[in-house]
Amino acid sequence: MLNTLIRATLLLSLAAPLHAAQPGDYQGALQEYQARTAGKPGFSADEQAVMQRAKAALAKTLPDPGIQVGERAPDFTLTNAHGESLHLYSELKKGPVVLVFYRGAWCPFCNLYLRALTDSLPRIRALGAQLVAVTPQKPDKSLEQFKAAPREFDVLSDLDSEVMRAYRLYFEVDPDLAAIYRMHGLDLVEYNGPDRNVLPAPGTFVIDRDGIVRAMQADTDYTRRMEPAAIIRALEVLP
Fold first, then answer.
1. What are phi and psi of 108, to 5 degrees?
2. Which of 34, 151, 175, 222 shows its CA 20 to 30 Å from the CA of 110?
3. What is the pLDDT of residue 150?
């Protein structure tokens, strides 16, 4: 059921030439994934039309998502999948933070990106930084995700959506689109909790020790992510 949705979302991505992905290369991994899944069954033409309308409406609603370079990152305290709290500005006292917002364990593009970031963790840590991820999904869903693919960084649950709002990434999923997702085996409420058909536009922020955003990328197109190599370049020039 869920595999049907994942395969269908890939059909909506732009075709790209295939090349061998290297560890930490999100774009290469994305291209390989698209090529591997191309031509498999997906959404009907009517369903694709609904998805395209929702995509266009979201791009209009969030034309420039995310807080921008030079802005102060909003502080927050969230809990990880093990019930432990993380306070952003306490972590910044230790060094820069790479803050990543992702949609959930069900999203193949998010999983590709998290894998690329995991490959890049040794270099990120060598530069004195740490990686922190934020998702709207419930902690139990994150725990399930860890069992399938253990993570080496904190994944925090934004259960009231306040952090997604503060970082200007929050949106409510179009009801018609949410219904199509459910028909294909993905109920966002099952992942996020009651009355929470909500998601973030995927975003990545490199935050220095003073809490200032020094590099970022956010996009309503969920296939577009900040390359780990760009994150590392941003960290290398921090004072």
1. -65, -35
2. 175
3. 67
- CA nearest to 6, candidates 102, 101, 100, 110: 110
Measure the CA–CA gap between 195 and 188, rounded to whole angstroms.
9
Separation CA 170–CA 172 (nearest Å): 7
Please give the structure tokens belonging to residue 41: 């069954």
- pLDDT category at 201 given cuts 50, 70, 90 is very high
Cα distances (angstroms) measured from residue 239 to each of 16, 71, 236: 37, 17, 8
35-39, 56-60, 79-83: segment of lowest average pLDDT: 35-39
Lowest mean pLDDT among 38-52, 99-113, 124-138: 38-52
Q: Alpha helix (H) ranges present in 82-214?
A: 88-92, 108-126, 139-148, 162-166, 175-183, 188-192
Give the model's confidence band at 1: pLDDT under 50 very low, under 70 low, under 90 confident, else very high: very low
Residue 35 burial (10 A CB sphere; 0-12, 13-18, 19+):
middle
Q: What span, in angstroms and rounded, lies between the C-alpha atoms of 14 and 8?
A: 13
Widest pairwise Cα distance in the chain: 52
Q: Is residue 54 within 8 Å of 172, Cβ to Cβ?
A: no
